[in-house]
Design goal:
Blueprint (H helix, E strand, L loop, with lengths): L5 E11 L4 E11 L5 H14 L4 E3 L11 E4 L5 E7 L4 H10 E8 L3 H14 L5 E6 L3 H6 L5 E9 L2 E6 L5 E3 L1 E5 L6
Parallel strand pairs: 1-8, 5-6, 6-7
Antiparallel strand pairs: 1-2, 3-4, 4-5, 7-11, 8-9, 9-10
């Protein structure tokens, strides 16, 4: 018998002063049985950092044809495809063909560095992909925030971001841009 996803609920308040985006989101997150608290919370952080009206969680680990998050336009075309972790370069290339913008948020410290060394030359030719690597320990700190019911606040200002709750110290979400789209300034 297959294990079922565990449902988490999050009330997320976002104050993104860099993009002038201020909103409250009621999120329902299905955590795949093989997913860790760290990965789930990195998905929530990705949602907070890229939040838009039509950004939504997808099946991700449960479906190879869907990312962790995506944003579609009103016609159903995929505007943004967001992957969390260290996806295979073929998966990223396929996503680049399906979406206007692809974002990969890698985490895991040393393992992310090794992954990046292995895929960098193949991803350099892709024009619409952005790759971020979260700072050392960020994913673990985010994982410590995980609860079945969460009330979270995310603040983004001057290129820096923090995610926390009323009962915890905010986690500084720092990242390094490993690759930016070819058309970026």
């Amino acid at each position: 018998m297959a294990l079922k996803s565990t449902i988490y609920k999050a009330e997320l308040q976002i104050a993104d002063m860099d993009r002038h985006y201020y909103a409250d989101h009621a999120l329902t997150i299905a955590r795949h049985p093989s997913e860790t608290d760290e990965r789930m919370m990195v998905r929530i952080a990705a949602f907070a950092l890229f939040a838009q009206e039509r950004l939504e969680f997808c099946k991700g680990l449960s479906d190879t044809d869907e990312p962790d998050l995506w944003q579609k336009d009103l016609t159903g075309a995929i505007e943004r495809w967001i992957e969390v972790g260290q996806p295979d370069e073929r998966r990223i290339a396929k996503a680049c063909g399906r979406a206007e913008d692809v974002v990969v948020i890698a985490y895991g410290g040393r393992t992310s560095d090794i992954w990046w060394q292995g895929v960098q030359t193949r991803l350099d030719r892709l024009r619409n992909v952005t790759v971020w690597s979260l700072g050392e320990g960020v994913a673990a700190s985010l994982g410590a925030l995980a609860e079945r019911t969460m009330r979270l606040q995310c603040t983004v200002q001057d290129g820096a971001a923090w995610l926390g709750s009323a009962t915890t110290e905010p986690v500084a979400i720092d990242w390094t841009v490993l690759k930016a789209p070819a058309n970026a300034a």
